[in-house]
Amino acid sequence: MITTTPNIIATCKQTRFHFLDDRPSREVDIQGLNITVHSPQQSSTETTEKKPKAKSKSKADGLELISNADLKLKAGVHYGLVGRNGSGKSTILRALAEKLIPGVPYSTRIAILQQTDAEVEDNKNHEIDSLTESLKEPGSISTSQKTALEQVSSCDTMRTEVQRKISLLSNSVEQDDPLAPVLTIRKLRHKQLMEQLFLAQKNASIRSGARGLQARKELKSIENRVASSTELLQQDTASIDAQTLQSDTQAAIDMLQDLQSQYETMKAIDVEKQARKILLGLGFNEDMLSRPFMTLSGGWRMRCMLAGILIQEPDIMILDEPTNFLDLLGVIWLENYLKQMRQSGPGTTLVLVSHDRAFINAVCEEIIILRDQALTYFKGNLAAYEEHFEFQKLYWGRMKEAQEKQIAHMEATIRETTKIGKKTGDDNKLRMAKSRQKKIDDRMGIQVSATGGHFKLNRDHVGYHETRRAAIEVPKDEKGVAISLPDAPDLRFPGPLISIENVAFRYQRTKPVVLNDISLTIHLGDRVGIMGLNGCGKSTLLQLLTGEFTVPSSGKVTRHPRLKIGYYAQNSVGDLQKEGLADQTLTALSYILRDANGQLNEGEARGLLSSLGLPGRVASDVPIFRLSGGQLVRLALAKILRNLPHLLVLDEITTHLDFHTVTALASSLSTFSGAILIVSHDRFLVRAVVEGKRDVDAPLDDDFEAESDGDSQDDSETPRRRTVYVLKGGKLVEQSDGVNQFEKSLEKRVVKMLAS
To answer: The whole model's pTM is what?
Structure first.
């Protein structure tokens, strides 16, 4: 099996105050953080080939994501981590969760929900997990047999571990065999020592000098204890003397009593009730709660994983795109749940990555910006940050413009004064010109202090040898890669693109009807949005429209004879990932050329990919399986756009995009000359593209075509038809107030769910 998970190397500044703390902490304060990613092939090459200076080159050989940054998380604060696709957000979160960053206490409980359901086994737990399997009590339920509710309830690891140990010790004490408590206590002690050994190995690997020497001594001591414990586990039971038998049995009884008193304090919270409440909020029904966890689809298993994290109440909770597999009801429920968790008092620290603007604005109180390999912080939500950014851009832009005019005037005066001084031999004029030039060189630049007062070099630049002021820098926009869509070709004769009349569909005769009596007509230029809860049949309807299913169960589907459809399916990114893994030499450029089958030359293919944000070497040199989710979305778009479609059918296209790219996509879609049918839970995208509304919290590009701007400059042309539907009970229900109407109805349901 080929490993595709990149290797992460994290380093940071460590002083004598940074040590491996055995106390959990909700705070993180790491200075001088550097994170570099190495590909698995590169790492394996480095291990097999001996390089004399591999250590010094390791940083340069990999892709550096973070350079000399400060990672600071305050206890109980909800952070939103924002940055462009491919900037390394998921990698940083993984490094934090796996405690690859030196200085993060290993006893701190960190729970992470990653974007993909990757079953990657961590090496540090291999021996511990195998020992845990041997300690399982008879009759225990394996993961494959657990129901969804049992799987989530078992994610409360602290309680589950205490219960497991109590069960093991109770069974051993109640047995007639006097050796049972001895063997059990020895296994439990050995497991604890193995955990200490792992921590000691990590500690020794990140220490140097005197601290490194001490860490290696501690490691040697624990290794000796593990060796002694291993001998005890392998000891012949017949050689155990009576004194050892009595002391170990008493130790087992004492541990059992301690664990039972600890468990009594945990029983105040009904874990199963809480798990049920969370799962119902995330979209499960009562029937699904009793289904085996392993029989659920990937999306529902991800919901279970999210519920398992919410039920743990860890010290630090990391949610990487938690809304990807949720419908709008689940998004609004999770939004309100996290807000309640924040308002209940200083508790779990949350780090959130999401492309949903409304979700980030509602949940997060501070923003972490990943940009140019650095981390900057802003106190406020995303909307406040963008407003502040625009203000700073305007403020510093005006200051720089005024100073440039001042400098231009002074330089003109210097030239005139110098000319007169040389012509008349007036030394005073020359000295005056030199003095003004020195002022330009030394005193131009930032004129205000950090507090907004007048800048003084000896006060605001103290400790620096540089005598000149820093130049004024105007903040630059951090926007997603520009996306350009080709115009739809001429149809040559008029008529609707697609028309469905009284369509009904069911997968089997014995199965219930999925779609019932649906009628919809789409003309060139129309904007149609379809929203609804998961499982209501939205994707089924799109498959009927696009011809994935040949015929409906009843009704009629009519398509324009010259119609070309560009269909972006929910699984488009997953299909590309599978193809990339199957052929690891396949790049975006070679994929498009292969798909075009001679209809595009290399220059045309490069132009198409570049217009969608995959330029140059990214298109030709980076294998598909190495592309980020956002880049794969662009590649999938390139595939459907190369045929110049008249109708774009987009099913949850924002799932893998950052919000900058979603904004760029919305602006580009608004000017598309063809028709657009969008199925999405993203409220911003549907409002912008379908309803043509500008969002005050999401500044769109200047070329965004809003409904208020007028869809056509020519009054003789028919204006765009803009309609939002909700698919419910197999029927399309038009929303007179658009997204707001659907959103308000779901908010009422969420209030009732959280109150129950």
So the answer is: 0.76
